[in-house]
Amino acid sequence: MVDVVWSATDEGAETGLTIREDNIFVQKGLFREPGLIEHIAQSAAAFAGYGTFVRGEQPKLGFIGEIKECIFHQLPRVGCELHTTIRMIAVVKGISLISAETTCEGQPVANCQMKIFIKED
Amino acid sequence: MENYYSLIASTIDGLSGLFRVQLNPDCRVYEGHFPGSPVSPGVCNIRMMLECAEQVVQHPLNVCKINRCRFTTLLSPQTHPELEIQINLQPKEDGLFILNASIGKGEEVYQTLKAEVLNTEC
């Protein structure tokens, strides 16, 4: 659930998603909380994928290990263009700690911290 | 999230509840998560816990904040077809509840959730 990666560096990434009516997390025209978390997790995965791409490695599967201090300011409507900023805080033993901020038309939507496990082959 | 799970049994006592559910291996989330190696998406499990909490309070709930949610075991309909969900809600002011929920089986705990939920808009 990421349409576009606007930028990606070693420190973070910026991603986007336009909410479509047929998204499985849309209920009564609103994009629900689990959808926001999944979008943030997949943005983090896109960021990790950029790193493996740059190093010439195969992309790996990633899973959410922990979600902390996740605040939902509003539930975005269908048609809304989400903009998410991912910042890498630390990587320890294959676990990435990231922070994320999602906005819609400049208004805050969600803030979150997440630990992502990367599955080694 | 249609057909993600089916409810087998539930016991509700005040603001607590115990739900037995069965994961559906044919749900379309597994087409993408992940092709050939199904893993139950953590966020779908969060939705499942919230839907159980809504049954306890018999009202739709909005999530204002997830204080902490931990996933300690990867789940799939193949490895964990049946799950038990425990719900406990503590009422605060103005329709706000502190939700403590877990997914497990018997003595084992696979995922835990602590969140602030509201029976109106956050």
Main sheet summary of chain B? 6 strands, antiparallel
Number of strands of chain A: 8
Average residue-wise pLDDT of chain A = 92
N- to C-terminal separation of chain B? 23 Å
Portion of residues in beta strands of chain B equals over 45%
The radius of gyration over CA of chain B amounts to 14 Å
CATH homology superfamily of chain B: Hotdog Thioesterase
The CATH topology of chain B is Thiol Ester Dehydrase, Chain A
CATH architecture tag of chain B: Roll
Beta-strand share of residues of chain A: over 45%
Query: How do the SSEs of chain B run, as a string of H and E?
Result: EEHEEEE
Which residues of chain A sit in consecutive blocks of at least 5 with pLDDT less than 50? none
Largest interface: pair, residues per side: A-B, 24 and 26 residues
CATH architecture of chain A, please? Answer: Roll
What would your notes on this structure say?
The complex is a heterodimer of chains A (121) and B (122). Chain A has one helix at 33-54, and strands spanning 4-8, 12-18, 26-27, 30-31, 62-72, 81-92, 95-104, 107-118. By secondary structure, chain A is α+β, with helices and mostly antiparallel strands. Chain A has a single domain (4-118), classed as Hotdog Thioesterase (Thiol Ester Dehydrase, Chain A, Roll), CATH 3.10.129.10. The radius of gyration of chain A is 14 Å and the shape is globular. The two termini of chain A are 24 Å apart. The relative contact order of chain A is 0.24. Chain B has a 6-stranded antiparallel beta sheet, covered by helices on one side. With 122 residues, chain B is mostly beta strands. The longest helix of chain B has 16 residues, at 42-57. Chain B has 1 helix and 6 strands. Chain B has a single domain (5-118), classed as Hotdog Thioesterase (Thiol Ester Dehydrase, Chain A). Chain B has one helix at residues 42-57; strands at 5-13, 16-23, 62-71, 82-91, 96-105, 108-118. Chain A binds chain B through residues 24-25, 32-35, 37-38, 41, 61, 63-75, 112, and chain B through 1-2, 28-29, 34, 37, 39, 41-44, 46-47, 50, 62-71, 74, 122.
